[in-house]
Amino acid sequence: MNPFRANAVAETVSQHMKPPVDTKDKILDVAEEIFAEKGYSATSMRTITSRANVNLAAVNYHFGSKAQLYQAVFQRRVAPMNKQRIDMLETLEQKANGNPLALEDILRAFIEPALRASLNPNQGGTNFIRLLGRTHAEPGPEVHDFLPLLYEKVKDRYRSALALTLPELSQEELSWRVHFVIGTIAFTLAGTDALEMIESCRYCDPADIEGIIQRLLPFLQGGLSAPAALTKSTID
């Protein structure tokens, strides 16, 4: 048989052997892409059903509403990401045997799973990371109560680790600094949309994940480990 024809036949057979994409996953993939492009408010169910080539009844059957679909998009991606964060932190804690962890190690364990996910289409790739950054930077009522619940366990575990590493910080001061850290990460996750607005970052490469991590870690470490701020409450 002609080798070119043989290759074509093999490719055709391979395509037919691929399992069909589940309707629910197809809706989630398309919704994730459109939410990342337009944001929650500007995305209509008609746009999602049209691009996914499904009817509205299918979306309602699997998710019930646009808000529930939006939450399902996050649940699918954030749950495994947070599991990886906790697994990495627990590995560090086991090696430390009860001693405080290095601040750099805590930060890397928290930020690396999200940044690495941007290179992995199976974890949402750039679509979900852009959506994640956008949502953290511009939270809407559709995630106001839902999103904190997704991060509750991770937040508590990392706060405890940071408190042990930075015992000189009060709970109030630590809470503010964690808030600033999350804000910095959210802006970083926003990717090219945010970078292109900053003239000084016209040479930044949002695809250079390791480079981003290496630049981000000392920046965050400096903020977290700086002397406590003098506030009205501390002066009084």
TrEMBL record:
DNA-binding stretch(es), residue numbering of this chain: 44-63
Q: A single GO molecular function, which one?
A: DNA-binding transcription factor activity
The record's keywords, sorted A to Z, are: DNA-binding
User: Where's the HTH tetR-type domain?
Assistant: 21-81
* Organism lineage: Bacteria, Pseudomonadati, Pseudomonadota, Gammaproteobacteria, Chromatiales
A family per Pfam: TetR_C_30
State the superkingdom: Bacteria
Q: Which organism is it from?
A: Sedimenticola selenatireducens
**InterPro entries on file:** DNA-bd_HTH_TetR-type_CS, Homeodomain-like_sf, HTH-type_TetR-like_transc_reg, HTH_TetR, PsrA_TetR_C, Tet_transcr_reg_TetR-rel_C_sf
What is the designated name of this protein? TetR/AcrR family transcriptional regulator
